[in-house]
Design a protein that fits this description.
Length: 257
């Protein structure tokens, strides 16, 4: 280990993190309104406010079947098609029939969706940027994808934090390209600790990059990459504080686990 890595390891070895789980599997928390209009939770004895308000009734209610269908209909089914030789009409089938099926499922729980002003700040930026792309392209598909994606990312901090973690691998001073996005996706495997999650990230990357071969999807995604203020999506100190308690290498590659 070189001296620079030794210094980095010393810095991150005892990084601050949520601590209530060391003594109990629960903690008393107060739901509050954050400075950006989003819901946050003040947990007893913790240094930072929890950056959102994950509602358990949704995680195991209306959000659960939507995530399950996305995993099966988009990712697992596409992986199976790629393995046996995907048909020319597969992407169009996914963009029309499957997207409509998923949106119909989303609409069943639409009354649970928080209004824009109460979304997590990172999710607000995703909503804003995708709204710009939606208007530029006039695509109703972008609108549907925006609503479902922001619903999931706002309620599930595991997905949101992984997405924000990827951004450390984007360029600091210019807009990322699809090549940068692909590289960041490849780094998720190194961030995961559990073997099953590593396999899921391999699948996730392969399927997303396959969809980005479609000219229409690629055009919309290029617009999104250029429109998004990626600094607004980076992990905050509070995000890292709570994320470090989960099975993920939050400080990789600065800290060698």
């Amino acid at each position: 280990m070189n001296i620079l890595q030794y210094i980095k390891n010393k810095k991150y070895k005892n990084a601050e993190m949520v601590k209530y789980w060391r003594k109990s599997d629960q903690v008393e928390a107060k739901v509050m309104m954050g400075k950006d209009g989003n819901y946050v939770m003040k947990m007893n004895g913790e240094k930072y406010l929890f950056p959102s308000y994950p509602r358990g009734i949704l995680l195991f209610g209306s959000l659960s079947p939507l995530k399950h269908w996305i995993k099966n209909k988009i990712f697992n089914d596409t992986w199976a098609e790629l393995e046996k030789g995907v048909s020319e009409n597969w992407v169009n089938h996914q963009k029309t029939d499957v997207l409509d099926e998923l949106y119909a499922l989303y609409e069943k729980g639409k009354y649970d969706v928080l209004p824009y002003e109460h979304l997590n700040p990172a999710v607000k930026e995703i909503w804003r940027a995708m709204t710009v792309v939606e208007k530029k392209t006039g695509s109703d598909k972008v609108r549907k994808l925006k609503e479902m994606m922001c619903f999931i990312l706002n309620e599930d901090d595991g997905y949101r934090n992984r997405f924000s973690w990827m951004i450390k691998f984007f360029p600091r001073f210019w807009k990322p390209t699809i090549k940068h996005f692909d590289y960041a996706l490849s780094m998720l495997v190194h961030g995961e600790i559990v073997g099953d999650m590593k396999a899921k990230q391999v699948l996730f990357r392969r399927v997303l990059m396959y969809f980005l071969e479609d000219k229409g999807i690629r055009y919309c995604f290029d617009l999104l990459l250029k429109e998004m203020n990626w600094n607004k999506l980076r992990l905050t100190k509070a995000d890292k504080y709570y994320f470090r308690a989960k099975w993920f290498k939050v400080d990789y590659p600065n800290y060698k686990y």
